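User: ok so my PI wants both of these folded by tonight, can you help

Assistant: No problem, let's get them done. Here's the first:
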Amino acid sequence: MNTAQRHHRSELTAGLRALATFLDSHPHVPVPKYGTVRVSVHTNYDTDASSEAEAIAEVERIAALLGTTPTVENGHHVAGAEFGSVRYEAILITQAAMARREALDSYRDAITLDDIEGA
């Protein structure tokens, strides 16, 4: 890990601690009631992976560090661990999965819905 990466990591963890301290000392500031707060690492952007295969390997490596098994579904490779209501996850969405989504979205403007009263 180079100096810039260490600095960024230190800033991130300090920011998370500062947020926790702030929320603890300001009980009237709302926090999410439902769901999980996520810290997501996208292995094709946030690591040194230079190919999709390397990014998938990063998800697998991170899963091992977290002591879990990655899930693979519809081109989404995900490894994660929960820390209370906070989830750390490593994600890779394959190019094929993104292309499928783009193809699906390409029809978006071809469909119009009638206005629904009250909606």
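One down. Here's the second:
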Amino acid sequence: LTLEQGQKAAYNCMLNLLANLHAKTGDLNKIKRFVKVLAFVNSADDFTMQPQVVNGGSNLLKEIFGEEIGVPARTAIAANTLPGGIACEIEMLVELK
């Protein structure tokens, strides 16, 4: 994939996480802050732009929730393979009000 396609995959992954949060909480306004994002990026051995891939999802949080709530600590890790050949996998820790 290109960097842009990876960013789109991270964006879609983050949308899925937000949909799940909404389903569980009933209201995304219950989010006090995003604490931590852990992302695994399916990468070739010579690919080193995992943080830029994850920006596709992280920037969405910042856009929707602003810097105070939507900018968590972040880790972007390269993986030589992910389940089903997916481009990225993201896990997040959220503090609720």
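DSSP finds two helices and three strands in the chain. Residues 3-96 form a domain with the 60s Ribosomal Protein L30; Chain: A; fold (CATH 3.30.1330.40). Good luck tonight!
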